[in-house]
Design goal:
The protein has helices at residues 48-60, 65-74, 91-95, 99-105, 107-112, 195-198, 202-211, 246-252, 279-282, and strands at 12-23, 27-28, 34-35, 43-46, 113-115, 134-136, 139-141, 144-149, 152-159, 170-190, 227-236, 256-257, 271-272, 287-290. The chain is globular. The chain is built from 9 helices and 14 strands. The chain has one domain (12-150, 179-290). Helices cover 22% and strands 27% of the residues. Strand 2 and strand 3 (34-35) form a beta hairpin.
């Protein structure tokens, strides 16, 4: 499938293996930012929205180290890497864009899709309609789910200098809520069949692949000091339609906890983590690599 620039690229299947140590990888706003877990079995959860937010933030910081190195390594053009999903955007100005200018401006709109549409009077509809404000992304991330249930640790934070008027000290009961340890797996899928509609190109996908290993350590916070992408597997198929079932790839790379699989872990050594694909699966692919150790330069971009 060709995009608006006449480019073609193959389907991709990816799997992130993420280690969490004494950190909150994704707080639940409905539960006082408690680390997300499934009620049924206690397994940890990282939402796709949470992970994509970190990629967006790296691109949004256009002059930061991540984008500076990405531009040098990938030979990115100077324009076309703005972020649609950001605070302070001018909705009225965006609504007046036609499909071509809209797709050309926003990296996340091309890669992840968008639902940027609100009620418009007929006279406000831009030339070419508003279909470009609703599109499925070329890349879809699935939820990150821990291999085993996780243990959540809760402690109270104190502040020597008070934050309330008239008090000389402060306290946040159970304000520090973290996962003691966990190995999460998050699949993602590159579907070039959508590129013709949203304008996603090879440079857009290469930028995403470049940033994936840096998403957590480059956006670390006080409650998220150690969340690390241990492996960022990326399998390129032999055609845009795909040359291997996604399930064969993902199942072959799924980590397993050796002992007591229904008990929380305390160390990564408790897991068997595959580092290659079976030959019968690898032979069905054009390429297979770990983005976390990939050496990027203009020759490989």
């Amino acid at each position: 499938m060709k995009n608006s620039n006449g480019e073609t690229f193959n389907r991709g299947t990816g799997l992130l293996v993420i280690e969490v140590r004494n950190s909150n990888p994704n707080g639940d706003p409905d539960a006082e930012s408690e680390p997300r877990t499934f009620d049924a079995d206690g397994r940890g959860l990282i939402s796709p929205v949470s992970y994509k937010r970190k990629l967006r933030d790296l691109v949004l910081d256009g002059d930061g180290p991540a984008m500076t190195e990405a531009r040098q390594s990938l030979g990115l053009p100077a324009e076309g890497f703005d972020i649609l999903e950001q605070r302070g955007r001018d909705r009225k100005q965006i609504e007046q864009m036609n499909a071509t200018t809209f797709a050309a401006a926003y990296w996340d709109g091309r890669v992840f899709g968008n639902t940027f549409l609100e009620s418009m009077k007929e006279k406000d509809v831009p030339e070419g309609g508003v279909d470009h404000f609703i599109s499925t992304g070329t890349v879809q991330f699935g939820p990150g789910v821990s291999v085993a249930p996780v243990e959540v640790v809760r402690t109270t934070n104190t502040n020597k200098s008070g934050v309330q008027e008239g008090k000389d000290r402060g306290m946040a009961p159970l304000g520090w809520r973290v996962v003691r340890h966990g190995i999460y797996v998050m699949p993602f899928f590159v579907n070039p069949m959508m590129a013709g509609k949203n304008g996603c190109g090879t440079k857009d996908i290469e930028l995403m692949k470049f940033l994936i290993p840096h998403a957590y350590h480059a956006t670390a916070s006080a409650v998220r000091p150690f969340v690390e992408v241990r492996h960022a597997w990326y399998a390129e198929h032999k055609s845009p339609l795909g040359s291997c079932p996604d399930s064969l790839i993902l199942d072959s790379l799924q980590p397993k906890k050796r002992d007591e699989p229904e008990e929380p872990s305390t160390d990564i050594d408790e897991y068997d983590i595959p580092t290659k694909l079976p030959d019968e699966v690898r032979d069905r692919l054009s390429d297979f690599e770990d983005l976390g150790i990939k050496q990027w330069d203009k020759a490989t971009a």
